[in-house]
Amino acid sequence: MALKPISKYWITFLILIATLNTFGQYRGETDSLLKPFNSYSFLHKKDVEKKEKVLSPLGPNAQFLRTTSYKNSNNIDKRGLWIKLKEKEFLYKDEKIYELTESKCELKEVDGKKASRYLRKALNSLNSLYTKSPYAKNIIKTLQESENKFTIAIVNAIDSYTLVPIPDNRYGVLNNNAYAFQIMEQKENIVDYAPFNQIGSGAEIRWSSRHKKMHLAHELAHAYDANFGLLDDRLIQAYGMIIPAREVRALFHENMIRRELHKKLRINLKNGSSALVANGIPYTIPLPFPARS
């Protein structure tokens, strides 16, 4: 009897399962597992020849699985890192901002010096992180070259926070794609009102211009983890209390950036607990098991 060919998706799944015990052991800090992968560029055709490698926190098989999940994606017009002021959006790319022309067929560079003060502060904050911290630069380049869309929405709010897309053009705290590896590990969807059809999702960072760039860096860290499906809402004991795993990750990213900016590490939190820092070195928790393979 002739055997039916195995679909490429089953092959991908079997590779991931077969390699968990071989390559999935945690060896040191989570982000010591950074692997290079090809980034995406879509601003102009000439940029296709200028693809630059950015770093992924995923293991090689997990990264392959993530890439495969975007194979049929065609969201060319909804990619990258944007800044939203009121109803207008500006594309951020390599320290510059662009806006769509009236025909909406091409992007035109905006003179940052002539932009409104709110837009200018967002641009200056991003550029400062981009140029002064290699760790932050990798996060920003990852978002600007992602298959997903990330928006820094300048709002009048008490605090800055990050939301992920849910159906009907809305945003919420939870979806399945941004929490992909938590789902794989616990074998259960996070929510029943959103699909689980890819690894990672975009996000909207709601940032007040009254806040400093480190507030923005912290929220960019959440967006970075959302891009790789690494957000995790499970509660763990860390910093002397019970908090979501996603906050442990974001604080780790933030402190890595603080080290490079020669800023004081964020150790003592407002609630009286302490961050995972030892001898001036930030630490974090292991990634979900399937993400490390």
Which regions contain 5 or more consecutive residues with pLDDT less than 50? 1-50
Distance separating the two termini = 35 Å
Count of alpha/pi helices: 7
By secondary-structure content and strand pairing, the structural class works out as: alpha+beta
Q: Could you state the order of secondary-structure elements as H and E?
A: HEEHEEEEHHEEEHEHEEHEE
Q: Label the overall shape.
A: globular
The biggest sheet amounts to: 8 strands, mixed
Structural summary, described in words:
The chain has 293 residues and is α+β, with helices and mostly antiparallel strands. The protein has seven helices and 14 strands. The protein has an eight-stranded mixed beta sheet. The protein has a two-stranded antiparallel sheet with strand order 1-2. It has a two-stranded antiparallel sheet with strand order 11-12. Strand 5 and strand 6 form a beta hairpin. The longest helix is centred in the N-terminal third of the chain and has 16 residues. The protein is globular, with a radius of gyration of 19 Å.
